[in-house]
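Work Package 4 report. The design task specified in the project plan requires that, given a folded chain encoded as structure tokens, an amino acid be chosen for each position. We show below one input record used in the internal validation round.
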């Protein structure tokens, strides 16, 4: 069954990364690391954005414990956010600025509902 709406952030890992994205029309993945201070500081913003974009599924993935998933994207810095449409990577950005992530979501996914 395909996931169609998001009301929160779903944690994924190497085991379910590919299948989760394949079941999701629109998704954003927060690639983070447990040692990354900006990643922890941005977590509440990411959670708030998940409520603003209920038509997008928000995933969180620890790149340190999920090296296979991490290797699917080129991560220039953390936190890193990757956008997917029907399981295909369409864009990504390394940022800790809400406006930058929100602009990318609006550009690709049509803005908040």
């Amino acid at each position: 069954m395909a996931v169609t709406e998001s009301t929160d952030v779903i944690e994924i890992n190497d085991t379910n990364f590919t299948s989760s994205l394949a079941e999701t029309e629109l998704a954003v993945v927060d690639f983070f690391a447990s040692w990354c201070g900006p990643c922890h500081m941005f977590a509440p913003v990411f959670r708030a954005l998940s409520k603003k974009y209920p038509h997008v599924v928000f995933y969180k993935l620890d790149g340190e414990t999920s090296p296979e998933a991490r290797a699917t994207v080129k991560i220039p810095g953390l936190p890193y956010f990757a956008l997917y449409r029907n399981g295909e990577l369409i864009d990504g950005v390394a940022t800790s600025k809400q406006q930058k992530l929100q602009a990318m979501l609006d550009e690709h996914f049509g803005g908040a509902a």
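The helical segments are 17-22, 37-52, 67-70, 98-109. Validation will be extended to a larger panel in the next phase.
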